[in-house]
Amino acid sequence: MQRQGSIGGSAAIRIRVTGGVLLVAHLAFVAWLTLRPLDVPWVTPPNLRPFAGVRADLALGGPVAARRIAEGLALLAPLGVLLPMAHGRLWAFPFASLVRTVAAGFLVSLGILLLQTGVPGRVPDVDSLLLNTVGVALAHLAVVPASRSWLRRRSERQERAAVRQEEAAQGRTPTFPRVGIAP
């Protein structure tokens, strides 16, 4: 019997462990990428106005703007998939799962933003916080509902196959003809 909508059996353990390992590896990569000191001759002031950096990137136009915005969306996007994968629930309310995942992605991005204030050469940017959070939400919406649905169908097929196999092992249930009422 599944507990709290979790994936059952050894498949659950494999999925959770894989999700946890990939989550730790991704967070270590993000920490290395975003918290390394940079040797720069000058530092721009921090961007504390929402979407000011995005507007400036769009003013540059073309591939430069697309690359910078895509980098902001993609940095923490894997969290949108890895967090639910590490949690391992098949039966979860989609909206609640989205809210939990986006909140966790927001908090990770906020932690990075706060830690960058003490790293030489790194400048806090509120736009990166917003883009990272949107990237987590988009990745979650693109992958998690479909994969949970596929895993639920697969689990139900396996349960039906196990029941059929058990019934075949037990043999057919005998049936008795209807007995009429005696006079």
UniProtKB/TrEMBL annotation:
Source organism superkingdom: Bacteria
Keywords per UniProt: Membrane, Transmembrane, Transmembrane helix
Residue ranges constituting the VanZ-like domain according to the UniProt record: 24-142
Chain intervals for the UniProt region annotation (Disordered): 162-183
Transmembrane residue ranges: 12-35, 69-86, 98-117, 129-151
Pfam families cross-referenced by the UniProt entry: VanZ
Protein name as catalogued: VanZ family protein
Species name: Streptomyces spinosisporus
Taxonomic classification: Bacteria, Bacillati, Actinomycetota, Actinomycetes, Kitasatosporales
